[in-house]
Design goal:
This protein is of the alpha+beta class. Helix content is about 25%, strand content about 40%. The longest helix is centred in the middle third of the chain and has 13 residues. Its EC number is 3.6.1.7.
Length: about 100
C-alpha cells in the first residue's frame, strides 16, 4: 500500500461561526466527494465536531478544507484535530450528519 493510501482516523472540532451556516451539510458533501467516511454534528458550545476516516492523502485534504474553507457563510477561527491514528479498516460506511 502506498503512503498516501494508509487509512487513518482523526477527530476534529471547528471553532468560529460554524452553526446556522450549513456547515454540517457542506462538510458531509465535501467528505463524500473525497470518498471519506465519518460524521459531523453541532455541539452545545457552538462548535462543530466529528470524525474523519479514509486514506491519509484525502483526510489531509479534508483537514485543510475544514481549517480554511468550510461553508460559504461560515467564519472559521480555528480547527482542532485530535486522536489521529492508523486504522486497518473503516468504522463507518458513509459520512453522516448526527443530530
Amino acid at each position: 500500500m502506498a503512503e498516501g493510501d494508509t487509512l487513518i482516523s482523526v477527530d476534529y472540532e471547528i471553532f468560529g461561526k460554524v452553526q446556522g451556516v450549513f456547515f454540517r451539510k457542506y462538510t458531509q458533501a465535501e467528505g463524500k466527494k473525497l470518498g471519506l467516511v465519518g460524521w459531523v454534528q453541532n455541539t452545545d458550545e457552538g462548535t462543530v465536531q466529528g470524525q474523519l476516516q479514509g486514506p491519509i492523502s484525502k483526510v489531509r485534504h479534508m483537514q485543510e478544507w475544514l481549517e480554511t474553507k468550510g461553508s460559504p457563510k461560515s467564519h472559521i477561527d480555528r480547527a482542532d484535530f485530535r486522536n489521529e491514528k492508523v486504522i486497518v479498516k473503516l468504522d463507518y460506511s458513509d459520512f453522516q450528519i448526527v443530530k
